[in-house]
Each structure stands twice: as C-alpha cells, then as structure tokens.
Amino acid sequence: MTAPVWLPLAVLLAGIVFGLVLGLPMAFTLGSASVIAAWLFIGPECLSYIAQNTYGMARNLILIAMPLFIFMACVLERSGVADALYAAMHQWLGGLRGGLAIGTVLICTIIAAMSGVTTTGVVTMGLIALPIMLERGYNKSIAIGPILAGGALGILIPPSCSFIVYGMLTRVSIGRLFAGGMIPGLILSFFYVSYIGVRSYLQPKLAPALPKEERVPFRQKIALSRGLVLPVLLVVSVLGAIFVGIASPSEASAIGAGGAIICAAIHRQLNWKMLKEACYRTMAVNGMIMWILFGAFCFSSVFIKTGGSALVKELVLGLEVAPIYVVLFMMLIYFVMGCFVDEITIVMITVPIFVPILNELGFSLLWFGVIWMINMQMAYLTPPFGFTLFYMKGVAPKGVTMGDIYRSIIPFIPLQWVALLLVMFYPQLALWLPDVVFKLM
User: Fold this and answer.
1) Fewest CB within 10 A of the end CB: N or C in the chain?
2) Integer Cα distance of 420 and 188 in angstroms
C-alpha cells in the first residue's frame, strides 16, 4: 500500500527534531533523518541516489570561493588593518557624543566589505573597540550593541559567503547577489549610526565625547586617515573585479586572499605563525560549513524525491491571500528558525520548499535572496543561539555578562525588521544596483 504523501515529510521533520533534542550536530541530524526517510519510502537504492546528488553538489566550482573568502577574513583579523582604521575613526568621530560607537559601526561596515563573514568584525572590534569605549565611560548597551549589529553586516554586504551558497542552490548570479546586498547593507549601517547618534544626543551620559585635551590636530587626523587606503583598495579590487566582469567570484576570492596577505605584510604582521593559524581556522570553518552542506543536501534531495516540495507548494498556493503575505510568512518562519539554526542549514532546508512557490508567484529570486539575508542577520543576534552573542562573550572584557550582551541587541532587532520590510515592499532597493552594474558590462 502506498504511503500518504505527508508521511515522508513527517518522518523527516520528526528526525530533525529528535536530533536537535539530543544535541547532535546539525550535519549528522539532517543526514541521518534523510537516510532513514529515504530507506523507508524509496528503498535501498536511495543510498546511491543521495550519494550522487551530494557528490554533484560538492563538485560545484562556486564553492571554491568560500574557503578563500574565509581565509581572507582570518588573515585580515590579524593583519592590523582594523587597528589602523579604529585609530583614525577614534580621532575623527571621538569628539561627538556616541562617536566611538558610530565609528565602530562604520569600521564594521568596511570590514564586512573586506571579509564576507560576521566573525571578523565582531571579534576584532570586540578586542579593539569595546575595552576603549567602556574605559571612556560608555554604557555597556551602547558599546556592545553596535559591534554585534555592525559585525552581522558581514553576511549581507559583499563578498558574503552565505550569498555564495544561496546562489549555488538557486542558480542566481553571485555577482548580482553581491550587488543586491550593497544598498540594503548601507541602509542598515545608516540606521545603526542614526540610532546611536539620536540616543547619545538625548542621553549624553550613555556615550560621552572624547575630552578636548585628548583630541589631535587636523593635520594628524589626516595622517591617521592613511589607515583607510588599504581597506578601500582591497574592497575595490575584489568587488570591482566582479562587477566589471574581469573576474568570477571564485577568481575574485583569490584576489582578496592575496590582498589580505599583502595588507598583513605592510602592517608587519605577516609571519609563519599567523599564516598557520589562519589556515587552521579556515579549514575548521570551511569544514564545518561543508559538513552542514552535505547533510542539508541529503535532506533536500530526499525531500524533493518523496514529494514533500510538491505537497507544500500545493498547500501554499491554495491559500487565498495576496502573494506578498506568503513571502512575509516565509520571513516569519526564517526569523523563528534563525533563533535555533545557522543560515546555511536554513537555506539548504527551505530552498527546495520555497523556490518553486516563489517561481509560481512570479517573485525575483535575487530580491528574495537579499531579504532572506537581512533576516539571517537577526539570526546572528537573537537568543538563544545567536552566534555573534557567543563570539562577543569570548572576547569581551571581564564584567561583561551574557545578560549585558542580550540587552544590548534589543534596539537593533527592530531596525533590522524595518530594513527587511523596506526592501520587501520596495524591491528596487535590492534590484536597482545589479541592473545598473550588469547592464554596463
């Protein structure tokens, strides 16, 4: 007797929940649930089917860019570039109320455009900027929150490793995704800076200005601005190569990795120990991502094969609601999932479900990828498993508790929702720049 259409989906979901409750690694949870469901509803031949699909995914040349961008971020974290940036911002903006926090957000925005991951901005600014802001009398919330929110821009502002995975799955141009994330990323950065400026103006004691006796002359500020040259050159070389069409994202990632090594050499931080640590960390992070991709691709293969995608598509399209509300419901699902699961796992699970629905409703997968990425920034900030929260705890000075870290992100979550809704209802914020850049090529 043929099993009901919904039964394979129920077994898959039950397996995932069971694995999460036991605390098993997500990669093995997804993989084992998929193999069990496939064995029950497809048969023994499922093993070769899963293996062939997963191997095909692993051979995708787009994935070459991921370890190189991660290596670039690991080298930049130790290169001294962030120290030079912060020294300049400290003097240029320190005289304003909240100036150090504003400068921190701007530096995180620049680091995001150099690294493509959240770790670099959070860890680097947590080590450099946070102790200085606390020493200057900044309230913990106005000192910690901007680092966390600014660091999360690393997955939205290109070059984003998460965009690479999304583009591989949906077959959307990586270059267009990178361009699509630029304006929303800058909007979010503007929102953070505006919030800090307004709150510091209304509550001066939260973020006092740098004392006049500690401010340097204008000429010295200009000299300190030389720290901006290398980051700008690196960003322009990586993104410019992609947007102009000189290099693919994979080739541009090699340019970025080489540029990061040059930056470290110029700042006299290039040595064998640093390179070895960067390589080890790259291998660990990329290995973790690849294992998640393997497990998640097993899940998506079995989900499609057993008819789960068609079932969900039929149910959603049968709802008598405006299409935009379907997308809003997807965003709410992402927000809840983001509290418990990383963005790579989320996109691997949901793409087989959501993409057919989006295509049927006529939505742009490029636009959806950008609003998905804005949503995933919240995943890095929302308890209980927001990764940046634990990164911050690992580098924060003594006296900073998890309670302080949790409270600091409360004002930034609504700002991210505002940006998400803004791009959702005004799609050209995500689509205009890719159209302009790639029409000129």
Assistant:
1) N
2) 9
Q: Does 25 sit behind a cis peptide bond, omega within 30 degrees of 0 on the bond before it?
A: no
Outline where 306-401 has alpha helix (H).
308-317, 323-338, 343-361, 365-379, 387-395
Residue type present at position 23: G
Element (H, E) at 144: helix 140-152
Residue at token pair 């062939």: 52
| DSSP structure string for 14-40 | HHHHHHHHHT--HHHHHHHHHHHHHHH
Tokens in use for 122?
Answer: 């959070």
Sequential pLDDT tens for the chain (441 residues): 455 667 777 888 788 788 877 777 777 888 888 888 888 887 777 777 777 777 777 777 777 888 888 888 888 877 877 788 888 887 888 788 888 899 899 989 988 888 777 777 888 888 888 888 998 889 998 999 999 999 999 889 988 888 988 998 888 989 899 999 999 999 999 999 999 999 999 998 888 888 877 777 878 778 777 777 888 888 888 888 888 778 888 888 899 899 889 988 988 888 999 899 989 988 888 888 788 778 877 877 777 777 776 777 777 777 778 889 999 989 998 998 888 777 887 887 888 888 888 998 999 999 999 999 999 999 888 877 777 888 888 888 888 888 899 999 999 999 999 999 999 999 999 999 999 888 755
Residue written as tokens 């300190």? Answer: 224
Rg for the chain, CA atoms, rounded: 22
Token pair for 386: 């927001």
Q: What is the largest CA-CA distance in the chain?
A: 84
Question: By C-alpha distance, which of 164, 187, 205 is closest to 420?
Answer: 187
* Cα separation, 350 vs 168, whole angstroms: 14
Token digits of residue 243? 């947007």
d(CA 151, CA 415): 15
| C-alpha span between 188 and 122 (Å, rounded) | 16
Alpha-carbon distance of 121 to 129, in angstroms, equals 11
Q: Any idea which residue has 């490029």 for tokens?
A: 366
Work out whether the CA dihedral 191, 195, 201, 207 comes out positive or negative: negative
Tokens for 256, please give them: 């970025």
